[in-house]
Specification:
With 220 residues, this protein is mainly alpha-helical. The protein is built from nine helices and two strands; from the N terminus they run αααββαααααα. α5 runs antiparallel to α8. The longest helix is centred in the C-terminal third of the chain and has 26 residues. It is globular and about 55 Å long.
């Protein structure tokens, strides 16, 4: 199993460590859709009991990253085009709102950091890093909104679709489009144009939805 394991036999937060390791492996695409998550195997891998493993899997199921079926146990959850479309439409609504509030309260250092992430995304030739750099760019711009509940929901939505976005960026021409749209969003933020930045963010996400849905349909 492709999971970065650590010895947590003497660690109080065993469940948290197993959860984070499995979550990262799923989001990064190291664990594929439908791959079984066998509690005994994972417990042995982390040198712990099945109890924290079961707790970690339950949390992953609550986040939609894992599904449990009778007689089959827990497996990595896939995603349907309909579900992906719904997530992106939800993101477009919420993130546009968050972006508007963020621009109205944006600090100069936020813009500097966001430009660094934008440039790193543009220069990167490593598909493994694209998903992380994309999230860092968006998260940096959203941070000054102060809307913590919204940000937590956005992060969960990213988790659900991140591995598919990475694959889509790597196997299509999505990087070129994403680079141009990121730059436009950033320039609107730098100009203090909150409504424009929000609209560009909404269109950016809906455009990514269309590209991803085409990608998922081609895979099916």
């Amino acid at each position: 199993m492709k999971v970065q394991a650590v010895d947590i036999s003497k660690t109080a937060s065993a469940s948290e460590i197993v959860f984070e390791a499995l979550r990262k492996a799923i989001i990064d695409g190291q664990l594929e859709d439908g791959e079984p998550l066998r509690q005994d195997e994972i417990a042995k891998l982390f040198n712990t009991s099945r109890i924290p493993v079961r707790e970690a899997i339950t949390r992953l199921e609550q986040e939609g990253l894992v599904k449990t079926q009778r007689y089959k146990g827990a497996t990595v959850a896939g995603i349907s085009p309909d579900e992906a479309g719904e997530i992106f439409e939800f993101r477009a609504l919420v993130e546009a709102r968050v972006m508007k509030v963020a621009v109205e309260n944006m600090m100069p250092q936020t813009l500097v950091l966001a430009r660094r992430h934008c440039e790193a995304f543009y220069k990167s030739n490593d598909p493994i890093k694209w998903g992380l750099l994309n999230r860092e760019f968006h998260a940096t711009l959203y941070g000054d909104s102060g809307l913590d509940y919204h940000l937590a929901i956005i992060n969960s939505a990213f988790d659900r679709v991140d591995r598919y976005l990475r694959a889509q960026l790597a196997l299509t021409d999505g990087m070129q489009r994403a680079n141009a749209e990121h730059l436009s969003i950033l320039e609107a933020c730098e100009a203090g144009c909150a409504d424009q930045a929000a609209d560009l963010t909404r269109r950016h996400i809906l455009g990514a939805k269309d590209t991803l849905l085409d990608f998922l349909k081609d895979r099916s």
